[in-house]
Design a protein that fits this description.
The complex is a heterotrimer. Chain B is built from 10 helices and 10 strands. By secondary structure, chain B is of the alpha/beta class. In chain B, the strands form 2 sheets. Chain B has a 6-stranded mixed beta sheet, with helices on both faces. A 4-stranded antiparallel beta sheet of chain B has the order 2-1-4-5, covered by helices on one side. The longest helix of chain B is centred in the middle third of the chain and has 14 residues, at 117-130. Chain C is mostly helical. Chain C has one domain: Orthogonal Bundle (MetI-like fold). Chains in contact: A-B, A-C, B-C.
């Protein structure tokens, strides 16, 4: 009874080859993207680039660096993530405790909220930007850091909340009981045991949302504006890396374009760093977590 | 006694832990052999070594030989799918394939290219009849198999397994998930089928073994303790442990 | 929601059906943009689905644990790359490639081409396909993983090969999930702004072939916000576009959420 070359083995072989090709295709795309960014951005990347703001009156000035965009992005994404965290954490916690002792999701309320979050999750960033803009007009706000932060927070909220929700759901509820039975008060339990348990998950969620927010262009396009300068107050317009790339790439000047590539490299670097550190962080802090 | 399957010095390791130790035994042709023993003793492992299902997990290591009709099924280069065609498996939980009743039975035949066209219809009828299911489903052959009751599903799986014309039927506690009536149905079918097939069953229900077995193999902690004709074993078990098991001590 | 007060002065059917987009003359037909978005998205899905399915199946069924551990983070990385960076890559790599390849390719497919640049539906489709890939792959992977082993064993027990088992048992069982993954990918591609904008040409016409440029709805909103305020009704039009986009996305999301929910409930 030895293997004979029949059609079904040949079919399997062909499919396997196609699978491997597909994998190479996809892995190759990632490699291509990273390579492109590195190759184009690295030459222009020097200390001056990172630490200076563009000189020359108009924001497409030929000299200087991208510091305005770097700081701007950090402010925007940082502020947005913080705001999202402030709103999202209570929601995530609430979803899980008002539905009978950290277990089950039976309340109509929680199903509705989760559904709303799911819908919000799928809304494209430009729609957030457009609505933010309309709101700004309504209130009479001009393009500013604050507006950008609010819109980014709205964009990040579903991502953040959903991620935190997943983590909290995974936590075994006996943990709370175990701590309470040792005589701790509810608050003590919450702040020590539960917090420690959730920390890796929360940190990961925050980094995830941050990475999403910093890379987004469409939402800040209308709302944060763009400027050569580093914003000094919440009402100043703010530059962001994605917009820096976009605008500068569109100019006919090669020096400015070179800046755009460097900005792309910096942005990609930040995002990769965020992604890797969230992995590392969750592994590190997760050592104390009970599975 | 004519041996259909011969196991020689079979050792099986799961992730470094030894599950079967030096098993040597013979399975007689056209009889029902029941493998008995407490949970975890390796009965299912032994069963699955016969249709080479052990390899499905990549942490198993197997040494020794298993001869079916005189040929070692573990010889490198052997076509595993042919072996599995020869030895059908009836699992503990019935898993109908996501297709109609007809297609479930026809599946094996189509895969191996055994029958086609008009022949297929009569073949499906034949095997459903062997499994004792034909009367109940003959007018709804094309509904999804998942709509059957669990007892019917198990009989469907039996028909599906028989359709590839195996010589040996392996059963891994085939009635433990079923209600008593369906279980009885399956037992009757098996008793009928032994005229044409060699049957090896794993069970932990002593009573079932007493009802069905022609030949008994008793295992404990991965070792073969005793084996022999059923009447012999049940009346006069030679080893103390065997006796203890039969008297319900563990 | 909030754009409705601005929209009161428009009639819906005129908008969606209108083919001419000339803001200066007060003509605001959305049709070319809708069609443009559909073209790009459909092409992206056609390009993306076969490799992604194969990849997900490979990861779930065939790959060794080592390979799997390597590839999954890779997918996460791919998913995290910001859309502008995809756009940059698209401009530098894909557009010239399309430009290079379109004479011969169009001859092969017997399509007439009048666009000498590489900025086209095809370029947009390719970039979007890569963007959407991680989403599709991970969802399909999860779904395939969740198919119970007993089913695979049932097929193997009658002597089927691994691939036959996948083809006849695993995939049919996983179909609802696969559909959900596709819908999810479709909606992601539909709503993508920056990456498409940078490679697709932004010409407000109905594209007649994949080598033509197009102007997706998202790019429309993004490109024109600056001039919005100066022309009457322009801002209302753009807001209307945003609203349309929102509605479409919400519908898509609800559909795929419902499908995924049904699968999860089905399993337990």
């Amino acid at each position: 009874m030895h293997k004979r070359f029949r059609w079904r083995y040949i079919e399997e072989f062909i499919i396997k080859i196609m699978m491997i090709l597909s994998t190479i295709l996809i892995a190759g795309s990632l490699a291509a993207i990273l390579l492109t960014v590195i190759m184009k951005g690295l030459p222009g990347l020097n200390l001056a680039m990172i630490t200076q703001i563009p000189k020359g009156g108009y924001y497409l000035g030929k000299e200087g660096g991208i510091l305005n965009a770097i700081i701007g992005s950090l402010y925007l994404a940082g502020g947005g993530t913080l705001l999202a965290l402030l709103i999202g954490l209570p929601i995530a916690l609430g979803l899980n405790s008002y539905a009978s002792d950290f277990q089950g999701h039976d309340t109509r309320w929680s199903i509705l909220v989760r559904l709303a979050l799911d819908v919000m999750w799928g809304i494209p960033s430009i729609v957030y930007g457009a609505f933010g803009f309309t709101l700004m007009l309504f209130i009479g706000m001009r393009a500013s850091l604050l507006a950008g932060i609010i819109v980014l927070a709205a964009l990040e909220l579903p991502i953040l909340t959903r991620a935190m929700d997943e983590f909290i759901r995974m936590m075994p509820f006996e943990l709370e009981d175990a701590a309470l039975s040792l005589g701790a008060t509810r608050l003590e339990v919450a702040s020590t045991v539960i917090f420690r348990q959730l920390l890796p998950g929360l940190a990961t969620a925050v980094l995830l949302a941050f990475g999403r927010g910093i890379g987004d262009a469409a939402s800040v396009l209308f709302t944060a504006g763009y400027t050569d300068r580093i914003p000094t107050s919440l009402l100043d317009p703010a530059a962001s890396l994605p917009l820096a790339i976009f605008f500068q790439l569109g100019t006919p000047y090669p020096e400015v374009q070179a800046r755009a590539y460097s900005a792309a490299l910096v942005l990609t670097g930040i995002v990769l760093f965020t992604s890797l550190s969230s992995r590392w962080l969750s592994r590190r802090l997760g050592r104390f977590a009970v599975k | 006694m004519q041996a259909h399957i011969q196991v020689r010095k079979l050792n099986v390791y799961y992730e470094g832990v030894q599950a079967l130790k030096d098993i040597t035994l013979e399975i007689p042709k056209n009889k029902i052999t029941v493998i008995l023993g407490p949970s975890g003793c390796g009965k299912t492992t032994l069963l699955k070594s016969m249709n080479r299902f052990l390899e499905l997990s990549n942490t198993t290591k197997i040494t020794g030989k298993v001869f079916v009709d005189g040929m070692d099924i573990y010889t490198p280069g052997t076509d595993v799918t042919e072996i599995r065609k020869k030895l059908g498996l009836l699992a503990q939980r019935p898993f109908p394939l996501p297709m109609s009743i007809f297609d479930n039975v026809a599946y094996g035949m189509r895969i191996h290219g055994i029958k086609r066209g008009a022949d297929m219809n009569s073949a499906v009828e034949h095997y459903l009849g062997l499994a004792g299911l034909w009367e109940e489903v003959k007018d709804r052959l094309h509904v999804p198999a998942a709509s059957l009751s669990i007892g019917q599903q198990q009989r469907l799986c039996l028909a599906r397994g028989l359709a590839v014309e195996p010589e040996i039927l392996l059963g891994d506690e085939p009635t433990s998930a079923l209600d008593p009536i369906s279980a009885q149905h399956i037992e009757h079918r098996l008793q009928d089928l032994k005229k044409q097939y060699t049957i090896v069953l794993v069970t932990h229900i002593l009573r079932q073994a007493k009802r069905l077995a022609d030949y008994v193999v008793f295992m404990y902690m991965g070792e073969l303790v005793e084996s022999g004709p059923a009447d012999d074993m049940f009346e006069n078990p030679r080893k103390a442990r065997t006796r203890a098991y039969f008297e319900g001590e563990f | 929601m909030r754009s409705r007060p601005i929209l009161i002065s428009k009639s819906i059917w005129d908008l969606i059906g209108g083919r001419i987009w000339q803001p200066l003359q007060g003509e605001f037909g959305f049709y070319p943009f809708i069609i443009g978005t559909i073209w790009v998205t459909v092409i992206a899905m056609l390009i993306a689905i076969p490799p992604c399915l194969l990849n997900a199946l490979y990861l779930a069924e065939y790959a060794r644990p080592v390979t799997r551990a390597l590839l999954k983070p890779l997918l996460d990385l791919l998913a995290g790359i910001p859309s502008v960076v995809y756009g940059v890559w698209g401009m530098i790599v894909i557009v010239p490639w399309v430009q290079h390849v379109s004479p011969s390719l169009s001859k092969l497919l017997r399509i007439k081409v009048s666009n000498p640049t590489g900025f086209s539906v095809l370029a947009g489709g390719i970039v979007l396909a890569v963007m959407v890939a991680p989403v599709i792959i991970s969802v399909v992977y999860e779904v395939v993983e969740s198919v119970p082993d007993g089913l695979r064993q049932a097929s193997l027990a009658v002597g089927a090969t691994h691939w036959q088992t996948i083809k006849y048992a695993v995939i049919p069982e996983a179909i609802p999930g696969i559909i959900a993954a596709v819908v999810l990918g479709f909606s992601r591609a539909f709503g993508e702004t920056m990456a498409v904008l940078m490679v697709v040409g932004n010409v407000p016409q109905v594209p007649t072939s994949i080598f033509e440029p197009a102007y997706p709805l998202t790019a429309l909103i993004a490109n024109n916000y600056g001039e919005m305020m100066s022309i009457p009704l322009y801002d209302a039009a753009l807001m209307g576009a945003a609203l349309l986009l929102l509605v479409i996305m919400v519908i898509f999301n609800l559909i795929s959420a419902m499908i995924l929910n049904r699968i999860i409930r089905h399993k337990y």
